[in-house]
Amino acid sequence: QVQLVESGGGLVQAGGSLRLSCAASGSRFRVNAMGWYRQEPGNQRELVAGFTTADTTNYADSVKGRFTISRDNAKNTVNLQMNSLKPEDTAVYYCNAEIFDYNSRSYYKVWGQGTQVTVSS
Questions:
Q1: Cβ atoms 80, 69 nearer than 8 A
Q2: Are 4 and 23 in contact (CB under 8 A)?
Q3: pLDDT in tens, 78-115
Q4: Measured on CA atoms in the order 51, 52, 56, 57, is the torsion positive or negative?
C-alpha cells in the first residue's frame, strides 16, 4: 500500500510564505497524478493545485498567481510553494495521488494525513 507523507504546514502571518511537500512511498507503483487539496472545518475538501495524468497543472482560481506546484518524478514528490498567504488560505491541506499498483494492476487514490496551515491577520 502506497502512503503519502506530508510536511511543511505551520503558522504564518498574512503575506508570508510556506512550502508544503508530499512524498509517496511504497513498492512497485507509479504516480499518475498528484496534488494538494484543502478543507476547512465543516466544509468540503477542494482542489488547490495538482498535476493531471497528462502532466498539466490545475490551480484553484483563488490561488492563481500566488501558489506554485512542482514535482520530482524520480522521488515521487510534489511540492506546493505558497506565497502571499491570506487568512482565507487557512485550512488542513491534504496531499492526494492516483496510484497505479503493478502488483494488483489497478488504480486507486490515496490521501495523506493532512497538515494544518494557519494564516493570521
A1: yes
A2: yes
A3: 999 999 999 999 999 999 999 999 999 999 999 999 99
A4: negative
